[in-house]
Amino acid sequence: MLEKIKATASFIKEKINDNPEIGIILGTGLGGLVKEIEIIQSIPYSEIPNFPVSTVDGHAGRLIYGKLGDKKVLAMQGRFHFYEGYSMKEVTFPVRVLKYVGIKNLFVSNASGGLNPGWQVGEIVLITDHINFFPEHPLRGKNENELGPRFPDMSKCYDERLRNKAKLIALQHNISVKEGVYVGVSGPTFETPAEYKMFRLLGADIVGMSTVPEVIVARHMDLKVFGISIVTDSGVPGEIVEISHEEVQEVAMKAEPKMTLIMKELVKSI
Ligand code: HPA
Fold first, then answer.
1. The domain spanning residue 115 has which CATH number?
2. Is the distance from the beta carbon of residue 213 to the nearest atom of ligand 1 less than 6 Å?
């Protein structure tokens, strides 16, 4: 695996001839950030050796290298979800590659179902912590000591300094944000009301089908992580209505400008 990671990282390094410090996974709700990036290079995943190819609607698969504000970034437009059938090794492979390209910070975004009864659909949430509810662990198997320790610490997954900066940015721009715990599940079904209730009882504020695998692997390699989520539907008893992927996308798109602004300013502040 290490060989593959290094080979893929070399391919990207040769193409971009630079070592940007910031990697961004543009999940649902951050597609608009691409428009803010002054694109220097755009590499379709299909052209990157060893990269899986993204299949889900609304997630075009390409790696973008460009300038956001005055900072160089490497942005993944489209990520790999466990529910698509990829193994955890495949889901997290690009993050490992980005580390070897040279990033120090990983910014991730996602859409989620809201579990906290005080919150609204459309709410932006800065992720403070997560619960890994995926049925397979991305670090299961032989540990590559070069990547990180066998038993990685997870007490400070989401960087407090980055989060505080994001809070300040939100405040300065009059954007309301919440802070909360994300529970990562396999999907692809949305939750039943009983499942939403269970995840709330377990201590989560939001639930979604991504992010946790990538963050675990990022922390294994000691990358600094910032996670932001947009609540696209409610899992609160009494508020649950039928939802679809399209509705999730629609709500996410509405919140996109706010999330884009926070991300852009945060990148600037690094
Ligand atoms: N559950 C899981 N994943 C999600 C949801 C949800 O309600 N909304 C958006 N992604």
1. 3.40.50.1580
2. no
Q: Supply the residue whose CA is at minimum distance from atom 2 of ligand 1.
A: 208
Distance 160 CA to ligand 1 centre (A): 25
Rounded Cα–Cα distance for residues 32 and 30 (Å): 5
**Is the entire prediction scored with pTM above 0.90?**
yes
Looking at residue 62, its amino acid is R
Tokens representing 212? 């946790």
Half-sphere exposure of 105 (CA within 13 A, CB side): 21
pLDDT by position in tens, the chain (length 270): 899 999 999 999 999 998 899 999 998 767 778 888 999 999 999 899 999 875 655 445 899 999 988 899 999 988 899 999 999 999 999 999 999 999 999 999 999 999 999 999 999 999 999 999 999 999 999 999 999 999 999 999 999 999 999 999 999 999 999 999 999 999 999 999 999 999 999 999 999 999 999 999 999 999 999 999 999 999 999 888 888 888 888 888 888 889 889 999 999 998
Kindly provide the residue ranges of all beta strands, DSSP E only, lying in 12-88, ordered along the sequence: 22-26, 38-44, 62-68, 71-77
Q: Is 256 in the pocket of ligand 1 (CB under 6 A)?
A: no
> Which residue type is seen at 92?
T
Verify whether ligand 1 is closer than 6 Å to residue 232 (CB atom): yes
Is the CB of 190 within 6 Å of ligand 1? yes
Q: What are phi and psi of 254, to 5 degrees?
A: -65, -35
| Domain count of the fold of the chain | 1
Domain extent, residue 179, equals 2-269
